[in-house]
Design brief:
single chain; 162 residues; alpha+beta; SH3 type barrels; 2 domains; two-stranded antiparallel sheet
Length: 162
């Protein structure tokens, strides 16, 4: 799952996908409506890749939280996160991120993260198995090279028969 092209724009609800980049603006597409618009430099734009949740020890990237929710909810959306009370949100979030910083993570942040998760699920953008598969393939190739299973073609040297 690549979240660097998925954006949040302050003052606009929902998530946006970066489509193109112009001189003075980024062209974005709303993931829910499909409408495109320019996001000018005066807007505060953040990539989901750069957003993290405060924990007691270190910050936890939003990507990891989405994976945890994905596994907990069995790849289904969360029902009506907007209607959850503050106590219900805190209890749910404590299941997902047990060590989240209770002083710095507000219920509005929790609600927003759950809404974003739903948008990503509806657009089929959360696929945690992809990363594991890619990492496994890289590990296999490294192991094969170390064990000498990969046959490399010897470099041909130019001959001196000229």
């Amino acid at each position: 799952m690549d979240l660097k092209d998925i954006l949040t724009i302050s003052g606009f609800p929902g998530l946006f996908k970066m489509v193109s980049q112009g001189k003075n603006a980024v062209i974005v597409e709303n993931l829910e409506t499909g409408k495109r618009m320019p996001a000018h430099a005066r807007y505060r734009i953040s990539s989901l890749e750069d957003i993290a949740i405060f924990t007691e020890i270190d910050d936890k990237p939003l990507k990891e939280i989405f994976f945890t929710i994905f596994e907990k909810e069995d790849s289904k959306p969360i029902e009506a996160p907007k209607k959850l009370s503050g106590d219900e949100l805190k209890a749910y979030f404590e299941e997902i991120v047990p060590d989240y910083d209770k002083d710095r993570v507000y219920t509005s942040d929790m609600k927003k993260a759950l809404e974003w998760y739903n948008i990503l699920i509806k657009n089929d953008m959360i696929k945690p198995d992809e990363e594991e598969v890619v990492e496994d393939k890289v590990d296999e190739k490294v192991e094969e090279k170390v064990e000498g299973k990969v046959e490399e073609k010897p470099e041909e040297k130019p001959s001196d028969k000229e």
